[in-house]
Amino acid sequence: MEGLAPDALRIAVLGAGSWGTTFAKVLADAGAQTTLWARRREVAQEITETHRNSDYLPGINLPPNLRAHDRLERVLAGAQQVYLSVPSQSLRSNLHSIRDIVPPDVPVVSLMKGVERGTGLRMSEVIANELGIDVERIAVVSGPNLALEIAKKQPTAAVVASASHATAVAVAQAATNEYFRSFVNTDVIGTEFGGVLKNLIAVAVGIADGVGYGENTKASIITRGLVELTHFAVAYGAQAETMSGLAGLGDLIATCESKLSRNNTAGRLLGQGYAFTEVIAQMNQTAEGLSSVGPILELAEQRGVHMPIVAQVAQVLEGTLDPRELAPHLATDSDEPQGE
């Protein structure tokens, strides 16, 4: 492509929603020749011909070295890195479609934050399971990454995690530019669960916001929520310090505080009295937290982890708890004073 170095990295990004398009922009702005897969042909044509994705990133100009296509074979041909940004519950079916055409030996990177219903598997586990590739080829990206802010080139940071430090570094180098900085770690479990669990806490904060509670309530939910997600992640093998980093606390703050957060928005609608089905109907995009509540609570029960905030979000979703009752019980089910 015009203006690119002859040895520019060739990258494929699957999924042209707000986050997939934004991350493709990050990669293109870092100098990569980036091709985005869009399920709908008209979206692919708009991105390639007008450098816009008006459905998901209205008003944002996309770089000329970012193209799109609706055929997976075209997008994946010659790719040196592959990034996945599809709804977590449809990941497996998407992987099944590409397992024979993913270029061999290239990093496969998850941009998704969720666990699979039915199996409780993290996204990196679904990728390894369905593609049959070595975990050292798999990386995950997480952090305080609200798509529209990044698309506007507002500075932020993320963390890239992989069982292979070399893979994490290769992905981080590709995903670093003047407004987006990628750090690395090898705690895939903590990085992924941080990205999943913060969505659930963001739904709780949104519920409190929708009810009309103020900053004290929301700060209490965020703080106690960090305790819950740390206990959960450590029980599954994560490092506690990861939960105080970009994938844990950083992402938690951004997702809980921003009106751009889909999970916060979903919670706010629930707090305003809308039923779960009405919230889904109003949301143009997937709020991963809503579909992860059940699987996370099942996993928590398996390891004996108590998660009162997440459990109460589940009750609100089921319609068995008045949203106004969520905050007063947020720390414990017992009236006895508990250690922090």
Please describe what this structure looks like.
The chain is α/β, with parallel strands linked by helices and 340 residues long. The protein folds into two domains: 10-186, Rossmann fold (3-Layer(aba) Sandwich), CATH 3.40.50; 190-329, N-(1-d-carboxylethyl)-l-norvaline Dehydrogenase, domain 2 (Orthogonal Bundle), CATH 1.10.1040. Helix content is 47%, strand content 11%. It is built from 14 helices and eight strands. The protein has helices spanning 18-29, 41-50, 72-76, 91-98, 123-131, 147-151, 165-174, 188-211, 215-235, 246-257, 262-271, 276-282, 288-302, 308-318; strands at residues 10-14, 33-37, 66-69, 81-84, 108-110, 138-142, 156-162, 180-185. An eight-stranded mixed β-sheet has the order 3-2-1-4-5-6-7-8, with helices on both faces. Helix 8 (188-211) packs across helix 14 (308-318) and helix 9 packs antiparallel against helix 10. The longest helix is centred in the middle third of the chain and has 24 residues, at 188-211. The model has no long low-confidence stretch (mean pLDDT 91). One of its GO terms (molecular function) is glycerol-3-phosphate dehydrogenase [NAD(P)+] activity. Keywords: Cytoplasm, Lipid biosynthesis, Lipid metabolism, NAD, NADP, Nucleotide-binding, Oxidoreductase, Phospholipid biosynthesis, Phospholipid metabolism. Residues 11-166 form the Glycerol-3-phosphate dehydrogenase NAD-dependent N-terminal domain. It comes from Microcella daejeonensis. Belongs to the NAD-dependent glycerol-3-phosphate dehydrogenase family.
